[in-house]
Specification:
With 264 residues, the protein is α+β, with helices and mostly antiparallel strands. It contains seven helices and seven strands. The chain has a five-stranded mixed beta sheet with strand order 2-4-5-7-6. Strands 1-3 form a two-stranded antiparallel ribbon.
Length: 264
């Protein structure tokens, strides 16, 4: 009876594991189909506009130079948007399909310090200031390229949509396995009903405005997938004083020293 009971339990466990794996496969296929449909929809807009501008130029050989220059400039902007969309699609596909994202010892302070200098040189934050307070010896287990891109996506999102004057990336503490961080802005925030969808792919609060500013609708999903691929987690909320706050964790590199805080 005991052997039979154990055999029956083992069979039940195997069936549950099979059902779980089957559900995971079906969910991956559903997400892939949804992504494909969304990509087709998103590509049609810039491609259609680019074609329209080029056709207009070619069909009017007597077009004056100023008008022609305007159409070429508009075409250039939509080509840039198309390139950004393809780059984001490539990144999120890589995150979806990779069984394991290669991670290494990454100095988080050095990445943030480098980004701070880069965004000043490239004027990414427009008129917003960027503050950071990351420990000098904050060593995380991450993929440096993906982590760098995720942070830039948070910064671009705040610069484009927050309407604030300040953003920042702050160290919030640690436990045995993780470092805790927050990224904030002092802008307008979003309606509570939209918070749960900010990490959804191709979600836009204002579709027209997002497309005019070049948003692909994949920036924040890339951030979430990147953090999760390292073994961390991320949430978002409206700040009481205004703006958004993203709170996230990244695993420690186990040989990391205890951080010593420094402010910039």
């Amino acid at each position: 009876i005991s052997l039979y009971s154990r055999l029956r339990q083992t069979t039940t466990d195997l069936e549950r594991e099979h059902d779980r794996r089957l559900h995971e496969q079906q969910e991956k296929l559903r997400i892939k189909r949804q992504l494909t449909n969304n990509i087709n929809h998103e590509l049609k807009t810039p491609i259609g506009i680019i074609k329209g501008y080029i056709d207009t130029i070619l069909e009017d050989p007597n077009m004056d130079a100023d008008t022609q220059r305007y159409f070429i400039k508009q075409t250039q902007q939509h080509v840039a948007r198309l390139c950004a969309l393809l780059n984001d699609i490539s990144t999120i596909t890589r995150l979806d399909e990779a069984t394991i994202i290669p991670t290494d010892e990454v100095n988080f302070h050095d990445i943030v310090y480098s980004i701070s200098n880069d965004i000043k040189a490239m004027s990414i934050t427009d008129k917003m200031s960027f503050n950071h307070n990351i420990p000098l010896t904050c060593i995380v287990k991450a993929n440096q390229g993906l982590l760098n891109e995720a942070l830039l996506n948070l910064i671009r999102n705040a610069a484009t949509y927050s309407h604030g004057t300040e953003m920042g990336l702050m160290f919030e503490g640690e436990n045995a396995d993780y470092y805790n961080f927050s990224f904030y802005d002092n802008g307008v925030g979003v309606d509570e009903k939209h918070l749960a969808h900010l990490f959804d792919r191709f979600f836009r609060i204002d579709v027209g405005r997002s497309r005019r500013t070049g948003g692909t609708g994949l920036g924040l999903p890339i951030v979430k997938n990147t953090i999760k691929s390292f073994g961390g987690d991320i949430t978002v909320r409206n700040r009481a004083e205004g703006g958004l706050e993203f709170r996230f964790t990244i695993p420690k590199w186990k040989s990391a020293l205890k951080p010593t805080s420094t402010s910039n």
